[in-house]
């Protein structure tokens, strides 16, 4: 990333920093930019941003950039950065918090398929209490196909369909596709948990 | 001995063979797996990426059921389920007020007493004590596995102790050695395969798998071994795509660790449904005269 010189914005900085620290439970002030995290980050290269840079953005109060960058969406939660951090800062917890904050701020995910995936997964669990792979994949595929259609990305839709059909056929051949639905008996408990989560999010 | 068991969603669907193998192999080790009654999805990575409360509360319902089972240990084969349950248990131990909020929603309350184990935490001590070696009927000679741990067996988002070297774990190698195989040293055993990114950020995930695959092939591995159904699925189902994209001709079967233990203890490949792998997993065993 070609990084412009960033300016410290004290007022925005303390607000943003406090919110991220509270939500992620991470002490961002401990970061002394040693970049051990950067060396191990599997998506740093493609994201153009590494955990140390993301922390720096937050410390400087760059709210927009912090909520809207590729690392937030490409982070795999592999926990390599946090395991190696000498100050125990788990950046995957920070990207989780930023993802939730960016959703609340109605910012469109920079990688829409990632946002759609996690939403579809959580939704699928709320239906039956267990993930049903086919239902979940259908939820997800419809969501991203609709998004892509809106943007006129027909080639991407066809490409995705081809890849999924190829995988689906192999899975059928290997008897790894399951049609049966498993429903949790205590589904009302699961529904209550979801309801509570919604209340807490407000 | 009875031990509680949480299969998780994938072992009841695309990785059903792993579920079947676990039950069979553990029985031969004198461990009866008691599946948790009416368990629910742990929320996996998606819950933690969408809602903090959900990511703790979904596993908590399972922990409550597990505590009520009266058993002392629970084994969780999927690394993602294992990690989420450990994180939830730890968080609830540290935060009594959150525990009270969540317990209010649950019929079976979280007490936090059950000990959570991975497949490896059951097998590795038995390899060390020699128990596993004594049960081997057919040494897996000629098998040179690249033991693949992935992320979530040794790395956690909170302070959870790991009974192995975090950067260079040896548990799986020790189990393989006890079975007569020759596991090799390589550089990508704890690197990330991308997990669900293979679906939602495919190029990213394929490039990570390429690095894993390239190193394993270069070191002379003739197969992968793993305990995580996500890692297994990725390296197995997408190996052709990785190979085609990056020009790797070799194809390595991706075994579950329990599958190799089962083979060595004399359980038949048919019983364990080894023919359900994407990359042919039976051919190599025949070639090495292990079948």
Describe this structure in words.
- The complex is a heterodimer of chains A (202) and B (291).
- Chain A has helices at residues 10-24, 36-40, 44-47, 51-60, 63-67, 70-74, 80-84, 91-104, 112-128, 133-150, 154-173, 187-201.
- Chain A is an all-alpha fold and 202 residues long.
- Chain A folds into two domains: 10-104, Fumarate Reductase Iron-sulfur Protein, Chain B, domain 2; 112-201, no CATH class.
- The radius of gyration of chain A is 20 Å and the shape is globular.
- The model of chain A has no long low-confidence stretch (mean pLDDT 93).
- Chain B has 291 residues and is of the alpha/beta class.
- Chain B has two domains: 2-117, Up-down Bundle (Glutathione S-transferase Yfyf (Class Pi), Chain A, domain 2), CATH 1.20.1050; 136-287, Rossmann fold.
- Helix content of chain B is 46%, strand content 9%.
- Chain B contains 14 helices and seven strands.
- In chain B, the strands form two sheets. A four-stranded parallel beta sheet of chain B has the order 2-1-3-4.
- In chain B, helix 2 crosses helix 3 (52-68) and helix 10 packs across helix 12.
- The longest helix of chain B has 17 residues, at 52-68.
- Chain B is globular.
- Chain B starts with a strand and ends with a helix.
- Chains A and B meet through helix 7, helix 8, helix 9, helix 10 and helix 11 of A and helix 2, helix 3, helix 9 and helix 10 of B.
Multimeric state of these chains?
Answer: heterodimer
Number of beta strands of chain A: 0
Supply Rg of chain A: 20 Å
What is the CATH architecture assignment of the largest domain in chain A? Orthogonal Bundle
Strand order of the largest sheet of chain B: 2-1-3-4
Low-pLDDT runs of 5+ residues of chain A are: none
- What is the name of the CATH topology of the largest domain in chain B? Rossmann fold
């Amino acid at each position: 990333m070609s990084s412009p010189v960033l300016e410290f914005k004290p007022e925005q900085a303390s607000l943003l920093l406090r919110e991220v620290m509270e939500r992620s439970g991470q002490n961002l002030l401990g970061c002394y930019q040693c970049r051990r995290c950067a060396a191990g980050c599997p998506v740093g290269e493609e994201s153009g941003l590494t955990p140390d840079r993301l922390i720096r953005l937050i410390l400087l109060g760059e709210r927009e950039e912090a909520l809207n960058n590729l690392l937030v969406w490409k982070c795999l939660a592999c926990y390599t950065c946090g395991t190696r951090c000498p100050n125990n800062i788990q950046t995957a917890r920070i990207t989780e918090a930023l993802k939730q904050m960016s959703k609340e701020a109605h910012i469109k995910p920079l990688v829409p398929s990632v946002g759609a995936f996690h939403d579809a997964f959580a939704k699928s669990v709320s239906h039956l209490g267990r993930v049903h792979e086919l239902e979940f994949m259908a939820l997800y595929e419809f969501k991203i196909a609709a998004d892509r259609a809106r943007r006129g990305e027909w080639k991407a839709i066809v490409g995705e369909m081809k890849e999924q059909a190829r995988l689906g056929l192999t899975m059928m051949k290997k008897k790894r596709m399951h049609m049966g639905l498993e429903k949790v008996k205590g589904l009302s408990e699961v529904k209550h948990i979801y309801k509570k989560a919604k209340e807490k999010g407000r | 001995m009875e031990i509680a068991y949480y299969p998780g969603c994938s072992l009841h669907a695309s990785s059903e063979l792993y579920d079947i193998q676990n039950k069979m192999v553990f029985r031969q080790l004198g461990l009866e797996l008691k599946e948790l009654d009416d368990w629910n999805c742990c929320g996996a990575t998606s819950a933690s990426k969408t809602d903090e409360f959900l990511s703790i509360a979904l596993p908590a319902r399972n922990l409550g059921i597990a505590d009520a089972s009266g058993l002392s240990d629970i084994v969780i084969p999927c690394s993602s389920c294992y990690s989420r349950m450990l994180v939830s248990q730890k968080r609830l131990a540290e935060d009594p007020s959150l525990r009270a909020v969540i317990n209010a929603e649950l019929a079976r309350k979280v007490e936090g007493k059950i000990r959570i184990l991975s497949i490896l935490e059951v097998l590795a001590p038995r390899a060390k004590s020699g128990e596993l070696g004594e049960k081997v009927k057919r040494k897996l000679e000629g098998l040179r596995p690249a033991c693949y741990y992935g992320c979530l067996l040794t790395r956690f988002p909170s302070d959870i102790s790991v009974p192995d070297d975090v950067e260079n774990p040896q548990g799986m190698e020790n189990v393989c050695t006890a079975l007569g195989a020759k596991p090799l040293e390589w550089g990508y055993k704890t690197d990330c395969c991308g997990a669900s990114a293979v679906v939602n950020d495919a190029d990213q995930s394929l490039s990570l798998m390429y690095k894993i695959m390239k190193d394993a092939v270069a070191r002379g591995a003739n197969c992968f071994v793993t305990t995580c159904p996500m890692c297994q699925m990725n390296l197995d189902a997408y190996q052709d795509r990785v190979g085609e994209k990056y020009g790797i001709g070799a194809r390595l079967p991706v075994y579950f660790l329990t599958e190799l233990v089962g083979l060595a203890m004399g359980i038949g490949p048919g019983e364990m449904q080894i023919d359900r792998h994407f990359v042919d997993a039976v051919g190599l065993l025949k070639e090495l005269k292990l079948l």
